[in-house]
Write a structure and sequence with these properties.
Helices cover about 40% and strands about 25% of the residues. With about 150 residues, the protein is α+β, with helices and mostly antiparallel strands.
Length: about 150
């Protein structure tokens, strides 16, 4: 099993960087697999949904409509200076991606408008055949999201 590790900034540019990093590592590792492009695209889609959900809901705590319509204030820009770590493990039958991120419990989340754009991330992840496992360590204020993506 091959192990890779990278750390990214928790802003929305970090999503693109993390996807490109995972895909670049997989191109090296899955050199002789058939349908390599389809596998890498599927893993990239699952990675995009997972990391964007983490940044939206756990780190910045903003709904999608506010992210793309409003300017980000000082507190949210401080939250985006946090970092998340990404661990990639490539096995014989599956790819395992572990994402470590800071976890601050939010007990109240006020959504003034309807959830127009979101709400389907978990369905997309399951449709791609990925299994998700979440673990929260309240003492360290950290959480880990593990994605198991088969490619056989």
């Amino acid at each position: 099993m091959r192990h890779h590790k990278a750390v990214f900034q928790a802003d929305f540019a970090g999503i693109d960087k993390s996807i490109v990093w995972v895909e670049s590592q997989l191109v090296k590792t899955l050199r002789f697999k058939p349908f390599k492009e389809i596998i890498i695209d599927k893993i990239g889609l699952v990675m995009f949904e997972s990391v964007s959900n983490i940044i939206e809901h756990s780190i910045t705590c903003m709904p999608k409509m506010n992210i793309y319509n409003k300017k980000i204030n000082y507190i949210q820009s401080l939250r985006q200076q946090q970092r998340f770590s990404c661990f990639l493990e490539v096995g014989v039958e599956q790819v395992r991606i572990k994402i470590l991120y800071p976890f601050n419990p939010h007990y109240k989340c006020h959504l003034r408008e309807k959830n127009i754009l979101g709400g389907r991330g978990e369905h997309i992840i399951k449709a791609m055949g990925a299994k998700v496992r979440r673990r929260v360590n309240y003492a360290k204020k950290a959480a880990m999201l593990t994605l198991y993506i088969p490619y056989v």
